[in-house]
Write a structure and sequence with these properties.
Blueprint lengths: L1 H25 L2 E3 L10 H6 L1 H4 L3 E12 L4 E6 L5 E5 L15 E11 L2 E6 L1
Parallel strand pairs: 1-5, 4-6
Antiparallel strand pairs: 2-3, 2-5, 3-4, 5-6
């Protein structure tokens, strides 16, 4: 009986671990947890930035990164090639390189930093 229970626990652990890895690799990514806000098109943000600067917005697209000499700058890109930089909170959120290229939903405060539009994640 003891060996059977051990075998069942090991198999359950392997199955859960496999499911978890598949979800992380192939599932969409949301930064941070969704609040139910309506998605704003990136093209709308770029063409009418004053409407959205200072507002909490939700955007969707593909996660990408632009490596710099000191760190990676993450951004979200729509199907039309429009990009918006993401500012992640220090020490509270990390992005795995495996998530690059995945569909994401990002929510945060739209701000101007040095003339650039940035979505500041909470």
């Amino acid at each position: 009986m003891g060996r059977f229970l051990f075998f069942v626990i090991v198999i359950a652990g392997v199955l859960f671990g496999t499911w978890y890895v598949v979800q992380r690799m192939h599932g969409g990514v949301t930064f941070p947890a969704p609040t139910g806000k309506d998605v704003v098109l990136l093209s709308d943000i770029i063409t009418k930035p004053d409407t959205y600067v200072g507002e909490n917005v939700a955007v969707e697209g593909t996660l990408g990164k632009d490596p710099t000499p000191t760190h990676a700058v993450w951004f979200v890109q729509d199907d039309g090639g429009v990009t918006l930089q993401l500012q992640l909170p220090r020490g509270t959120m990390s992005v795995s390189s495996q998530q690059e290229g995945k569909k994401v939903r990002a929510e945060g405060l739209l701000a101007r930093t040095g003339g650039d539009l940035v979505l500041v994640l909470r």
